[in-house]
Amino acid sequence: MTITILPDGGSLAAAAARQAASAIVRAVEARGRARVIAATGASQLAFLEALTSWTDLPWDRVELFHLDEYVGLPVTHRASFRRYLLDRLVEPTGIRVFHALDGMGDPQAVCRAVGEQVAAAPVDVAFVGIGENGHLAFNDPPADFETTEPYLIVSLDEACRRQQVGEGWFPDLASVPARAISMSCHRILQSQEIICVVPDERKAKAVRAACEDEISPHVPASILRTHPNVTMYLDPGSASLLSEER
């Protein structure tokens, strides 16, 4: 795993966006389309803004998947991840193919339908983050590292749900759904390239654990270290607890 530390959030977002744009162009040039997975949440806002500023990318050739969605949350809710991606990625760029996870649908049926689509061909690049509890997508600790199912129905732990309140998506813990649909760790690792965007000091403990602790389901994001092509973008805050050799 390559760790890149930038001096501030803006330069982090710009550098990650440059790598993401290059991955999209390479895929389109090689195969006529780019299959992309995108994360959501407060930590991805600046990155997606920087990426969508690349208006000359072949956005009409991008096929988009997203990592996770709350069960039972309508697309009109401000915390809906499909609303997030529609507003911040799909509509600004004109992406034509978006495989949305419908949180209001039957969760098992949604997992099967979108899972078949994501498994149908290689994913060129995945944009991911790391949760304050070390989660990858909504795979909270202890994550299931064994399943090969593309999508899972998961229970969200309290730390994960408190993060959503802390980021302002929900007014209180009781309002945060207890279940979600999440792409599995195994499926994320099938991506040919992974760009991990992790700004902010509140992520420092999770970053240190993911980069330096034992690879373990108790630190779900640690599994990224088993992938041959991961770049993690950090700022001084999120990198602040890494050992000096890092």
Please summarize what this structure is.
This protein has 246 residues and is of the alpha/beta class. The chain has helices spanning 9-31, 45-52, 81-93, 107-118, 158-166, 185-189, 204-212; strands at residues 2-5, 34-38, 62-66, 68-70, 97-99, 125-128, 151-155, 179-183, 194-198, 230-234.
Biggest sheet, open or closed, and with what strands and sense?
A: 7 strands, parallel
What is the beta-strand fraction?
15-25%
Number of helices: 7
The global form is: globular
Radius of gyration: 17 Å
CATH topology category name: Rossmann fold
Tell me the domain tally.
1
Low-confidence stretches: none
Oligomer: single chain
How would you spell out the order of helices and strands?
A: EHEHEEHEHEEHEHEHE
For the secondary structure, the number of strands is: 10
Fraction of residues in helices?
A: 25-40%
Question: What does the average pLDDT come to?
Answer: 96
Query: Structural class of the secondary elements?
Result: alpha/beta
Examine the secondary-structure arrangement and name the CATH architecture: 3-Layer(aba) Sandwich
The CATH first-level class comes to Alpha Beta
Q: Can you offer a commentary on this structure?
A:
This protein has a single domain (2-136, 143-234), classed as Rossmann fold, CATH 3.40.50.1360. It has seven helices and ten strands. The protein has helices at 9-31, 45-52, 81-93, 107-118, 158-166, 185-189, 204-212; strands at 2-5, 34-38, 62-66, 68-70, 97-99, 125-128, 151-155, 179-183, 194-198, 230-234. A seven-stranded parallel sheet has the order 1-10-9-6-2-3-5, with helices on both faces. Strands 4-8-7 form a three-stranded antiparallel sheet. It is globular and about 40 Å long. The relative contact order is 0.18.
